[in-house]
Amino acid sequence: DIETAIKVVIVGNGAVGKSSMIQRFCKGIFTKEYKKTIGVDFLERQITVNGEDVRLMLWDTAGQEEFDAITKAYYRGAQACVLTFSTVDRNSFDAIEKWKKKVEAECGYVPSVLVQNKMDLVEQSVVNKEEAEALAKRLKLRLYRTSVKENLHVDEVFRYLSDKYMLL
Ligand code: GDP
Ligand code: MG
Questions:
Q1: Distance (Å, rounded) from C-alpha 36 to C-alpha 39?
Q2: Which end of the chain has less neighbouring CB within 10 Å, N or C?
Q3: Ligand 1 neighbour 24 (Cβ under 6 A)
Q4: Looking at the DSSP assignment, which residues form a beta bridge with residue 114?
């Protein structure tokens, strides 16, 4: 039988933790100094969803998002999307809808999920719980609150997305 492989794009403003999330999920590590480039286009990890093997290819933007210069190749063939903002970066929250539209313009409908990262810094939060929930509701997206640093709910994000993709 043919294995399922899913290209996942991880979008959101710079510094919200996208590269860290990819590295955490695929390699199981977190580094504070982790820099923009991972040297490859994507990292992958295989998981089992409802008894089926799924290969997730997580595409990194290599920092181009900061210059609004993400190439078409990044979005090409994307089958799922993670929209990410940071608990301590208001602009990143305000930019979510723009990112969603961008992905839709390039890829059409793809199963997506909303992620509020850096929940370990919730004491310094600039986005309150109700606002985040309201955005998720308005965009009809499931919201996950993660800490890539503390490895909180990261696996759940990709499990949910795989599940959603398989149900298409
Ligand atoms: P990207 O620009 O979206 O790819 O963000 P990076 O993955 O490069 O992360 C930006 C900074 O945030 C780095 O210093 C990371 O170590 C840090 N970071 C990422 N995730 C978390 C998290 O969950 N909590 C905290 N406190 N820092 C994080
Ligand atoms: Mg990055």
A1: 9
A2: N
A3: no
A4: 83, 143
The ipTM assigned to this model is 0.99
pLDDT in tens, 54-77: 999 999 887 788 888 888 889 999
Query: Which one of the ligands is nearest to 24 CA?
Result: 1
CB burial of 84-115 (b: ≥16 within 10 Å; e: otherwise) equals bbbbbbeebbebbeebbebbeebbeebbbbbb
Tokens 């100094």 sit at which residue?
33
Is the Cα dihedral 102, 107, 112, 115 positive or negative?
negative
Kind plus residue range of the DSSP H or E element containing 39: none
Hey, is 140 helix, strand or coil?
Answer: coil
Q: Which amino acid is at 23?
A: Q
Closest CA to 16 of 158, 114, 155: 114
Q: Is 111 in the pocket of ligand 1 (CB under 6 A)?
A: no
Give the whole-angstrom CA distance, residue 115 versus residue 104: 17
